[in-house]
Amino acid sequence: MEGNWLSPPERAAWVRLIGMLELLPAALDHQLRRDAGMTHFEYSVLAILSEVPEQTLRMTELAGFTNSTLPRLSNVVKRLVDRGLVERFAVPGDRRATNVRLTAAGHEKMVSSAPGHVDAVREYVFDALTPEQVDQLSEIAAGVLERLDPTGTRRPPIDPAPAS
Amino acid sequence: MEGNWLSPPERAAWVRLIGMLELLPAALDHQLRRDAGMTHFEYSVLAILSEVPEQTLRMTELAGFTNSTLPRLSNVVKRLVDRGLVERFAVPGDRRATNVRLTAAGHEKMVSSAPGHVDAVREYVFDALTPEQVDQLSEIAAGVLERLDPTGTRRPPIDPAPAS
DNA sequence: TAGAGTTAGTTCAAGCGACAACTTTCGCCG
DNA sequence: CGGCGAAAGTTGTCGCTTGAACTAACTCTA
Q1: Which of A1, A4, A20, A50 is most worth mutating to test chain B (most B CB atoms within 10 A of its CB)?
Q2: Do A123 and B147 touch (CB under 8 A)?
Q3: What residue ranges define each of the domains in chain B, with the CATH number in brackets?
Q4: Rounded to an integer, what distance in angstroms lies between the CA atom of residue B65 and that of residue B49?
Q5: Angle in degrees, CA B46, B108, B58, rounded to 5
Q6: Close Cβ partners of B136 (under 8 Å, ≥ 6 residues apart)
Q7: What residue stretch is flagged as signal peptide (chains A, B) (predicted)?
Q8: Cross-strand pairs, A71
Q9: Which of A123, A146, B116, B146 lies 20 to 30 Å (CA to CA) from residue A34?
Q10: Interface of B with A in 50-89 (CB under 8 A)
């Protein structure tokens, strides 16, 4: 109830941002589903695990890194376990907690699907941007994220993982 | 299979963009659901109709403007009709086609919910950006959209509608 | 050490989107 | 003008996300 409408430049930016917000996730999901048989969210889970020490993370940490919720992650991890891509095991000190670790098969999956996904990311996003725009995008997204998640609980995971 | 990994700056931008792609839509949806009792997609439909001549659009056009699909739109319009916010009627010349028009109640709904939504958009996005960044974002999103939808079928609708 | 409150994670029901069929209508070509 | 393919929408099924309980385990305090 404070400010009024958006200014014309803001309006233009907003319309385009909304379009990107709807089409880009759909495009990424489609690529991964077609080429790797998994969703973008599942890919993110594997990518993050592949980059972390011991390829192991607790459920709550993993939920934070993926900008997700515990119920959602719980379901997804269940599916990944069924497919043998990750495994669950108890945390020594705390019997409430659960660790999730990438399996060898999960690592293989990342190695095989990451390059194709990175190509898609290039094609849809970075091929359209100059180096200056990449930095601008970085700053802009950082500013918005600061508003959306001031606590910073959700740390920079990574998407197109090296999966070395 | 062409380029290799992302460069460090690209990687940083990517991680942040992914975070924004997941958190921003969720935040907008939450605000609208809480304050207006509808989803962001439903809001978009009403907003676009409110800005178009006669507050009327054909299903296919509306699907394009909302970056959506016909089946999805069909379901949403059905719900909006049940709530009395829009109405469907035949297109004179073509008996296959269907027009959708905003009702008086739908207009009222926009008038009452748009200001709050615009405030949210400001809070999450534009308050975090300088005027220069707004223009940068506009250019960046335009470039990405060009890659995602080269045909440009999906025209600039509008999100935070005046609902005059 | 018993009890209250909190945290970690799972499960269940409800709702929405995606995809594929299906119906109806139109345009076109012989 | 008969028929064939394309276009416009709708409907049905399946899978996933969400939000609300619910269980189990930990911590702090009296």
Answers
A1: A20
A2: yes
A3: 37-148 (1.10.10.10)
A4: 10
A5: 30
A6: A133, A136, A137, A140
A7: none
A8: none
A9: B146
A10: 67-68
Q: Which residues of chain B, if any, have pLDDT below 50?
A: 1, 157-164
pLDDT, averaged per 10 consecutive residues of chain A (164 residues), comes to 78 94 94 94 96 93 93 95 93 90 95 95 96 97 90 55 42
pLDDT of B163: 40
Q: Determine whether the interchain pair A10/B68 forms a contact, defined as Cβ–Cβ distance below 8 Å.
A: no
Q: List pLDDT tens digits, range A109-127.
A: 999 999 999 999 999 999 9
Average confidence score pLDDT of chain A: 89
pLDDT at B110: 95
B98 touches strand C (CB under 7 A): no
CA distance A108 to A120: 19
State residue A14's pLDDT score: 95
- Of the residues B2, B7, B21, the best mutation for testing chain A's interface (the one with the most A CB atoms within 10 Å of its CB) is B21
CA distance linking residue B68 with residue A26, whole number of Å = 10
- Whole-number Å distance, CA B71 to C1' D14? 15
Please tell me the distance from the alpha carbon of residue B87 to that of residue A30, in angstroms, as a whole number.
Answer: 33
